[in-house]
């Protein structure tokens, strides 16, 4: 929703500068906007802004100009003029995970950070999925591992959810964290203030900062540190699964992927490593 808001806002400001009416927009206005945006932002951003214009017209119950063939041609023109490869976050593979766990401090923040890193890797979560977990989503299994219900994701807006499982180490690290945190806090991971756990959730930006700060503490070069993102746990775990010999269907099941094409992009570098 934040992306839609910023994209529609960009369209509205552009129309004001051009002396055009944004709502309802004409086909010619949308085409001109896309071509103008194609000169200053990535094609993926242009496409997202087109979706934002489409969404706002439908919400306002106005005629939708975005489905016209001229608009499709304008978008294709933008793609041809500025071809680019999507930037892939550096994968937090198991080797990186081990180093990141080693540098966590011996305090409440360290307990939380270790549990977040290990759990996020095991579950192949997006950062938003990790911070959205609730204590009630965790089920302890007899073998010392965890069953986790990931209730909602970017590709599961209806909240059908998916079931994922963890290692014994993640279960132990989470148990250590929960022993400190207490039982009366709903979010699985929460802020800590003056050494006391606070009953509210974390923002997803905390995950990205945690991964990059861990890479920095582990002594990696800034060029490597900056390549990590909040998506790195998901990317790295998928690459490790491929390197371990798991097939595409198993990896898609583990990470909740709906598209083989998206997964293939995640696995590019892992495939290279396998044959190297």
UniProtKB/TrEMBL annotation:
Molecular-function GO terms, alphabetical: DNA binding
Top-rank taxon, per record:
Bacteria
- Describe the location of the Core-binding (CB) domain by residue ranges: 1-61
Q: Name one Pfam family in it.
A: Phage_integrase
Alphabetized InterPro entries for the sequence:
CB (IPR044068), DNA_brk_join_enz (IPR011010), Integrase-like_cat_sf (IPR013762), Integrase_catalytic (IPR002104), Integrase_recombinase_N (IPR010998), Phage_Integrase-like_Recomb (IPR052925)
Q: Which residue range or ranges hold the Tyr recombinase domain? A: 87-276
- Return the protein name: Site-specific integrase
Organism field: Pseudosulfitobacter pseudonitzschiae
